Amino acid sequence: MSVSIALDRPATAAVSRTAPAQELVRLHAVSKRYSPQLTVMDQMSLTMQDDERLVIIGPSGSGKSSLLRVLMGLEGIQGGQISFQGREYIDGQAGGARKLDPKLQRQIGMVFQHYTLFPHLSVLGNLILAPTKVHGWSREKATERARQLLARLGLENKLQAWPSQLSGGQKQRVAIARALMLEPKLMLFDEVTSALDPEMVIEVQNVMMQLAEQKMAMIIVTHDMHFARHIATRVVFCANGRIVEQGPPEQLFTRPREARTREFLEKVV
Ligand code: ADP
Ligand code: MG
C-alpha cells in the first residue's frame, strides 16, 4: 500500500496553511424529528471552520448518523437553518418541506458504514457514474480523476475489479475515492470502519489520516476513541439530540467537564 501514516503520530492541525481558516458549516437551531415522539436533533447549533476535523461521539441512537445524513441533504429538517461556506444551504423552517441548494450539496462527500458500492459496476464504473451521469463530466475527465484518486489510495491496480473481488478495507477505500471524485470541500464519515476486521480498520484509517494531512475538512462518527484522539481537532459529544460538550481531544478525553460525558467515556474507553 502506498499509504502509511503512523497512527501514533497525532495529526497536527493546520501546520502549513496559506489562507486563513474560514467558516465552512454553520447549523443554527436545527431540529430533526422522525415523529412527534422522536426528536433526534433538538435545536442543535454548531459551527465548523474549514481547517477542522470534527469527531462526533455519543451513545447509540443519539442521532449521530441523522446529523450526517441531514448535512448530506439526505434527510429533511423540521426547524433551523444550515449554511455552507457562508451561504444558505438548507432551510428547515417551512414545516418540514426541504429547501436545499444542490450546488452546495455537491461540495460534500459521504462514506457510510456498509459498503454502498454498486455491485454490478466495476470500481471505475462506481467512481465515474455520478460525475458523468449527473454532473456532465466527460468519460475521459472522470476516468482520469478516478485513476489519480485510486493511485493516491493505493488501489491503482483495482480499476477494473468488481466490488465482490475486493476486501472490506478495499471496498471502503473505493467508497472514499468515489466520495472524493467531485472534489468535495467537506467529507462525512459514518462509522466507516465498524464492520471491518482489525487489519482492515488500519488501512482505512490511514487513508483518512492522509486526507487529514492534506487538510480535508471532515466530520467523523466513530466509536474508536483511539482514532478519534488522533484525527480530531475537536470532539463533539452528543446525547439526546443535543451537544453535551465539545473540545479539543486532549481536554475532552482526559478532563471532560460534564458528568454525562465522563459516564459515556468510562463505558467505551
Ligand atoms: P446514531 O447514529 O447515534 O446511533 P441515529 O441517527 O441512527 O443515531 O438514530 C437516532 C434515532 O432515530 C434512533 O432512535 C433511531 O432508531 C431513529 N431513526 C433513525 N433513522 C430513522 C428513520 N429513518 N425513521 C425513523 N426513525 C429513525
Ligand atoms: Mg449511527
Automatic annotation (TrEMBL):
This protein's UniProt keywords: Amino-acid transport, ATP-binding, Cell membrane, Membrane, Nucleotide-binding, Transport
Matches recorded under SUPFAM superfamilies: P-loop containing nucleoside triphosphate hydrolases
Molecular functions (GO terms): ATP binding
A matching Pfam family: ABC_tran
Keyword Translocase found: no
Cell location: Cell membrane
Membrane topology label: Peripheral membrane protein
Domain ABC transporter intervals: 25-265
Family: Belongs to the ABC transporter superfamily.
Protein name: Amino acid ABC transporter ATP-binding protein
Native organism: Pseudaquabacterium rugosum
